[in-house]
Hints:
- By secondary structure, the chain is α/β, with parallel strands linked by helices.
- It has one domain (9-252): Metallo-beta-lactamase, Chain A (4-Layer Sandwich), CATH 3.60.15.10.
- It is 23% helix and 28% strand.
- The chain is built from eight helices and eleven strands.
- It has helices at 24-27, 67-74, 91-97, 133-141, 148-152, 206-211, 220-237, 249-252; strands spanning 9-23, 36-48, 51-55, 105-109, 128-132, 157-161, 165-168, 171-175, 184-190, 194-198, 240-242.
- A six-stranded mixed β-sheet has the order 1-2-3-4-5-6. Strands 7-8-9-10-11 form a five-stranded mixed β-sheet, covered by helices on one side.
- The structure holds zinc ion.
- Zinc ion (ZN) is lined by residues 114, 116-117, 201, 245.
- Zinc ion binds next to loops.
Amino acid sequence: MADxxxxxxxxxxxxxxxxxxxxxxxxxxxxxxxxxxxxxxxCYLMETARGFVLYDTGLSSEGLDDPVAARAxxxxxxxxxxxxxxxxxxxxxxxxxxxxxxxxITEIVLSHAHGDxxxxxxxxxxxxxxxxxxxxxxxxxxxxRVNFADYSDPSITWNIVDxxxxxxxxxxxxxxRGHQPGHQSAVIRxxxxxxxxxxxxxxxxxxxxxxxxxxxxxxxPAALASIRRLNAIARETGGELIPLHDPLFVQRxxxxxxxxx
Length: 261
Ligand SMILES: [Zn+2]
């Protein structure tokens, strides 16, 4: 991950594709549950020497306009209200504004299989979908989960991987278990802007990384180890953590159509 190594990543776009309403105790364990946050849902488009790559695909807005169905599907002890996807958050129109059609996306990397990261998968017909084996197996075993339909399509071309790997020069995938069995983050090298670390759901807020505190996790020690690992990569590379669900970060991020290069 040395900065001098060649990179095939030309541009990185942050796409804001919706919001979730979550108790802060869902983001940071032990925080007061009556503090409620609207946290962004983001996904990321990379323009590369080998075509367009997406890291995560956001949340499908299908069914959100039916309040009864949306409550039944999304509301639980952590999320007091359903998610919000406004017309300006919709993923496909945002890609179209960048001149990118769904068929132009040839690689998708999934951080993990939760519904706010795997929407619209069926629309990307030409993409190979890279997922960690532990995540793939857990997702396929748990067919009742939200948005299973988005990744159950038999025509999906899966690229099932085991552990850390370089997907292409300048794009490294890092196994960061804890939130889910096979969660993965991405370390991106850019010529001008340096190293950007897509945390995915290792933790929701920059505060998690600064204080080294976990949030929602199925394996607490692994989740803490993953927070510390991404902090170490940031230190070693001089890279910047790009949190996917941080409501403060998103307000100062370069959002699409602006980008990092
Ligand atoms: Zn998430």
